[in-house]
Amino acid sequence: MDEFASIGHWTAERQSAQWQKERGVVLGIGDDAAVVQLPDVPQQQWQWVLAVDTMVETIHFNDKTMSASDIGFKALAANVSDVAAMGGLPMHALVSVSVPPNWGPDRMRSLYDGLYECADRYGVAIIGGDTTSSPQHLVVAVTVVGRVETGRALQRSGAKPGDVVFVTGPIGQSAAGLHGLLDGQASVMPEPLVRAHRRPSPSVLAGRLLQQRGTCTSLNDVSDGAASEAWEIAEASGVCLVLHDRQLPRSGALMSYAADSGQDALEWMMYGGEDYVLLGTIEAGDAEGAKAALEAEGIPMFIIGEVEEGGPDVQLVTGGAGSSMGSERRRQLQKRGYNHFG
Questions:
Q1: What is the pLDDT of residues 31-58, one digit of tens each?
Q2: Which residues are annotated as a binding site for substrate?
Q3: 133, 141, 266, 276: which one has the fewest Cβ atoms less than 10 Å from its Cβ?
Q4: Annotated binding-site members
């Protein structure tokens, strides 16, 4: 049973949709974040966006891959990215840590240095949490509360045939960085790959700009891999996402390192995860306008495919015009990415 099947097994049919609605739940389990509003308060301008992520030593990080400060920064950044994927603004955070004996006061202070650095960058107030001991490994759990205009949260379920698929930055860099760090190559690796893994940059401004245009039909952040995020949109929307290999953004640092290390860059791009750029769909008529608006703010936007009827499915097109591979070929992208139970 994989991660998402496990969540469904644990939570399905526990509470009815009507019961949750009476308690202000607008969007519950199944998207990047939950959306709620205070019940019995009509005409609210904003709804709350809530997300939580947990990082566990030896699963998400170790001494070879990240410093204590990096861990704190990334623990909050992952949650900020979930709020960004809803088109929201992050506001407040609760931080819980389970601390083993080998994580002394100075080391934990460094972790909080990174956490507050991220909080200051994105305007997040750290307002509380919990602290416990742990017998062996550090656990950091962060909950972020954000806000989004009432009724305007971007979800995974709105993609329509005729939309185009986009991504707001290069993908695969974090996975490449992790590969090199695990091999002890940090000192010789391209710096953008190391930075992508240790200090990701959530796409809050991109999410807000897309939300405000009113033409973005679905959105996800690339946390578990581009293929996984595309499948989540395809399944939630009941459509087929068609991605074009030649349109995928490949950074020079990624391609250089992949060639030098004998690795498949496309594997990192599709299945690596932790890039925290946004992948989504937008009405075709506004794709170029949105691209220009984001690029005016220094944010790249790459059109990488289109939405078709059918599915749910995710297809990758290879070859075609300008390719050494000849005529176009389609294949289904495997439904995988980082999975804790897979």
A1: 667 788 876 666 678 999 999 999 999 9
A2: 60, 274, 338
A3: 133
A4: 32, 53, 60, 82, 112, 129-130, 156, 221, 223-224, 274, 338
Amino acid at 54: T
Give the CA distances from residue 4 to residues 51, 60, 223, 278, in Å, rounded to whole numbers and listed in that order.
Answer: 16, 18, 14, 20
d(CA 53, CA 82): 9
Pinpoint the residues of the chain covered by CATH 3.90.650.10: 164-332
Output the CA–CA distances (angstroms, integers) from residue 127 to 92, 142, 144, 145, 257, in the order listed: 7, 11, 10, 11, 41
253 to 192, 193, 196: CA distances (angstroms)? 7, 7, 11
Arithmetic mean of pLDDT, 245-254:
96
Q: What is the CA radius of gyration of the chain?
A: 20
Question: Does pTM surpass 0.90?
Answer: no
Residues of the chain with CATH 3.30.1330.10: 3-149
CA distance linking residue 179 with residue 173, whole number of Å: 10
pLDDT of residue 327: 81
- pLDDT digit string, tens, across residues 211-223: 999 999 999 999 9
Alpha-carbon distance of 92 to 201, in angstroms, equals 18
CATH superfamily, with its number, for domain 3-149: PurM-like, N-terminal domain (3.30.1330.10)
Superfamily of domain 164-332: PurM-like C-terminal domain (3.90.650.10)
